[in-house]
Amino acid sequence: MQYIPDMQAYHGQQQIKYLVHLAHLKDRLFELQTHTDAQRWPERFLAAIRPGADLSQVWPQWVVWMLIDPEHGVIRHAKRDATRKAIERVAQFWRDGGTPEEFKDARKQATAAAAAAADDADAYYADDDADAAYYAAAASDYAVAADYAAAFAASAAVCADSAAASAATWRKAQSQWAAVACDKLIALLEAT
User: Fold this and answer.
1) Which helix (H) or strand (E) holds 59?
2) Do residues 189 and 48 lie in contact, with contact meaning Cβ atoms separated by under 8 Å?
3) Which residues contact 177 (CB under 8 A, 6 or more apart)?
4) End-to-end CA distance of the chain, in Å?
5) What is the per-residue pLDDT across 151-164, written as a single tens digit (0 to 9) for each?
6) Which pLDDT score, from 0 to 100, does residue 138 have?
7) Strand ranges (DSSP E) for the chain?
8) Inter-CA distances, 175 with 72, 82, 147, Å
9) For the segment 16-53, what is each residue's pLDDT rounded down to a tens digit?
10) 2 found inside a domain
11) Is residue 107 part of a domain?
12) 136 vs 152: CA distance, rounded Å
């Protein structure tokens, strides 16, 4: 008897995997928003999803945006070439469909960039750069924690500019970033 893969079942499994990622992201973005915005978020999120839509590309597109968007992405905190290259490599694999092995290699590259940045003598740049590289490394973890990595990278990226910021300032910046991230996710959902 010859084994014939059930591609429909495989596609269904992939779709479920991305739905789980989107559910984690939806929850994390809920937590980052202002109280008023958070109250509207669940309905806004669900209203953006067209019944029967293939959502399999929404998660990868959002991760790419979160990593390399010049205004809101983690890459804006990268001060060293090695860190920028590591972030760009992870984003490329999400965009082009990297293999698990490629994601593992990208994780190693990003982790090495983070370690180098952490050892940097210039402490002002080292923290931001190390954070950016660590988030890229976490986002490259293909099988385990990409959804968590993106959520944590998202929340940390907004405060990396000012380690001395007050809690209120940090929370305001976090809410502002969350509003932009939510708008991006809604636009991606509506485009499916």
Assistant:
1) helix 58-68
2) yes
3) 32, 72, 154, 155, 157, 158
4) 39
5) 445 545 555 544 44
6) 62
7) none
8) 13, 30, 19
9) 777 888 999 999 999 999 999 999 999 999 999 999 89
10) no
11) yes
12) 11
Band (2; pLDDT cuts 50, 70, 90): very low
Q: How many CB atoms within 10 Å of residue 1?
A: 3
Cα(177)–Cα(187) distance, integer angstroms: 15
CB 90 within 8 A of CB 139: yes
| Residue 149 tokens, joined | 């990595």
- Determine if residue 168 is left, alpha or beta; phi over 0 gives left, psi from -120 to 50 gives alpha, anything else beta: alpha
Entry field: residues in the chain: 192
- Is the pTM here over 0.70, yes or no? yes
Stronger pLDDT, 128 or 101, i.e. the higher one: 101
Number of domains in the chain: 1
Cα dihedral 58, 105, 149, 111 in deg (nearest 10): -150
Give the structural domain span for 167. Answer: 7-45+53-190
